[in-house]
Amino acid sequence: MKRIAEFLIIGLLLYGGVSVAGASDWPQWRGPNRDGISRETGLLKEWPDGGPQVLWRVPLGEGFSGISVARGRVYTMFSEGNDEFVICLDASNGEEMWRFRSDSTYYEYEGGNGPRATPTIDGEFLFTVSAQGRFYALSSVNGEKVWSYDLIKDFGSYMPKWGFSSSPLVEGNMLLVEVGGNNGKFIVAFDKTNGDVLWSSHTDKLGYASPIGVTIGGVRQLIVFAGLRLLSVSIDNGEVLWSYPWRTGRFDVHAATPIFIAPDKIYISSGYGSGAAVVQVKVMNSPESSALNNGGEKNQIEVKEVWRNKKLQNRLSTSVLHGDHLYGFHNAILKCIDANTGTEKWKTRGFGEGTLMLAEDHLIILSDRGKLGLVEATPKAYREIASAEVLSGLCWTVPTLANGRLYARNQKEMVCLDMTGQN
């Protein structure tokens, strides 16, 4: 406890006690709201010959971890030789500020070697998990360990076929982790400051998707795409609120993060012939701030399937929602579908099994071989604005946009691009 207290004092001195990221930062998986959407403006709509200006490139090892950016620092994970690391870089020039050895290298001949999860930055804390299940709370300032767990030894979890991949979620003072443990320890809520277990919930099969937090009918819920179902639990105490069965034909590979369609719908998708679905969640007689009604009884929650088809199968990457339409990869085909009906609007090839995010009504797309594209996000037709080759080799990590800069990686390097023409 003494070490934790000293660490917190250092964090307060360095950050002035502020515990939230900057307005244009990208502090966790899929950005500030876990929806793959940037709120930045003033981005280039025409690119110079060769693409956006390269501000810096740095060598990086194997892995598929996303890139988090907060307060002028860049965080990700990779493997080098027989070791796995969490690394922090200076966003201005790519210089290494610190690294922390998180585990030995995870070797997987089908999916690729290295870590999968994306670090979550919350003020002076960094939270992440190695591909083999070692969970850490580190200092985001200097990389020192604050607290940690071995998910397999401490919670009775098991090693997923393609490694631990889910990225942790912060809710206030609570850290929510898809642990995968047995005996009601599938999801665990920790006190983020010291690692104390606040509650644990459910027993299920691990998936590979990351959880999201949503509020529907006044009830705050953690939405988890587990191996066998879409699952909702109360963030207050871990009580299971509802579930929707979902099986994927091969190994129950649920990798795409669920998408919240306000005010009361959830979109999920998986590959191997499974497809996609939208479900509607209805909370009856719910006040705006509690999962109990005025009589003190639990609310009744109904889950209804709005549509389900096989037109958009997100095998690896997660789609984005813009207006009433979803944009994402059906294996190696980029598609737009109507979020209300599941109707396909258009489709195209050319990016392989790529990844994408949204900014200023445009899709920023990275192909699985390093082609960067700028595409208008419209259901009317596929309209490519610009494209450029920015990386080579295997690129399965979604790019990150923060403070006018785009960060992308493959299995050997990270590149930082100027997306405003002003850096």
Write a brief caption for the model:
This protein is mostly beta strands and 423 residues long.
What does this structure look like?
- The chain has 423 residues and is mainly beta.
- It has one domain (2-418): Methylamine Dehydrogenase, Chain H (7 Propeller), CATH 2.130.10.
- The chain contains 2 helices and 33 strands.
- The chain has helices at 2-15, 151-155, and strands at residues 37-38, 54-59, 68-70, 73-80, 83-90, 96-104, 120-122, 125-129, 134-139, 145-150, 169-171, 174-178, 187-191, 197-201, 212-216, 219-225, 229-234, 240-245, 259-261, 265-270, 275-284, 300-309, 320-322, 325-330, 333-338, 344-348, 355-359, 362-366, 371-376, 383-389, 400-402, 405-409, 413-418.
- The chain has a 5-stranded mixed beta sheet, with no helix packed on it. Strands 2-33-32-31 form a 4-stranded antiparallel beta sheet, with no helix packed on it. The chain has a 4-stranded antiparallel beta sheet with strand order 3-4-5-6, with no helix packed on it.
- β16 and β17 form a beta hairpin.
- The longest helix is centred in the first third of the chain and has 14 residues, at 2-15.
- The chain is globular and about 60 Å long.
- The relative contact order is 0.14.
- Mean pLDDT is 92; it is low at 1-21 and 288-296.
